[in-house]
Design goal:
Two copies of one chain form a homodimer.
Chain A lengths: L6 E9 L3 E3 L22 H9 L3 E5 H11 L11 E4 L11 E4 L3 H9 L5 E4 L3 H9 L5 E7 L1 E2 L4 E2 L8 E10 L5 E7 L3
Parallel strand pairs in A: 1-6, 1-7, 3-4, 3-6, 4-5
Antiparallel strand pairs in A: 2-9, 7-11, 10-11
């Protein structure tokens, strides 16, 4: 598999004011009550096929711990897909498909993931997004904007301090009022 | 004219990471170099007709001073449309269609603007947006997202501290990679 085939995509679901989580970590806001007539309907089949196209997830320890917390009342959000948690901490992991990594991020991509996978998703948080962006490791950004202003919470982007030109690849509006924007990063 | 006909719209052009201006106030980033094939082309005629539908602009003193600064090298961005600058400061105004207002914002809308205008645009900055949102005076939010990550600058939203449910009304993607999202504010 050539390295051209490999793609690292940042994906996050965000409020219009740029928050990816509430301070109390509640997630009911993710179920919108909105209805957008011109929007696309998402069937479970389409959604399942889409999720299956993701080979590997990367996340920070905060995102991981949030997912663990949620898995006590809901399903584990990342299924059986290989998941790499970037952390210097000694996290308690009891899933065979979850691996802790604390080394160099460029090496992780170039030496461990690039030859093995095609479609890797970085799902947060903001600090890790910033670090991957700084290292020019990101190919695409996929943002799903929900029709809500949260007013407070954990921001999607920390100040990156650096400018990046983007190329709009696709825009999809859904029946539930969610808008998905897909960008590739220019001059990567 | 009934008060139902009146609409206060927040409008801002923002980077994907939520900035409306760079720290050095340069504006060349507003001219994208992106090209989105599926996007809509904007003709000058359509744009002129659209701008003519705006009856009045409201802005904070920072936004005003930035516009004055820009008008030294470009045209004054708000034309002959009545413009109200919210400020406690003694600003130097030399345009007959620009008026300074320092009083109560609800009174401004309900006593001065609602019976006179239909389509009023609040064009920033973040502090004023927050204040109008807090007072439940806003009907719509129109955000034009440019295909760029600025990494730093003046944010679109200050933490509003309050949740607002939105209704997605329209999504338009343009040939230059700009995506315009139009929301109304629920339970206003």
């Amino acid at each position: 598999m050539s390295s051209e085939a490999f793609k690292l995509t940042i994906h996050m679901v965000s409020s219009l004011d740029g928050f990816i989580a509430k301070n109390d970590n509640s997630i009911s806001w993710l179920d919108t009550t909105d209805s957008y007539e011109k929007g696309v309907e998402v069937t479970n089949d389409v959604n399942d096929a889409f999720l299956k196209s993701i080979d590997c997830y990367i996340m920070g320890s905060g995102t991981y711990e949030h997912a663990v917390e949620l898995s006590k009342t809901n399903a584990w959000a990342y299924g059986d897909t290989p998941t790499i948690v970037i952390s210097q901490r000694n996290l308690n992991v009891n899933r065979s498909n979850v691996q802790i990594y604390s080394g160099n991020l460029s090496k992780l991509i170039k030496e461990q993931l690039e030859h093995k996978y095609k479609n890797v998703w970085l799902v947060g948080g903001a600090k890790l997004v910033k670090e991957f962006m700084r290292l020019n490791l990101v190919d695409e950004i996929r943002i799903s904007i929900l029709p809500i202003l949260l007013g407070d919470g954990i921001p999607f982007f920390e100040n990156l301090r650096k400018e990046h030109l983007l190329h709009l690849q696709d825009v999809t509006a859904y029946k539930n009022g969610m808008v998905e924007l897909l960008y590739s990063i220019k001059n990567k």
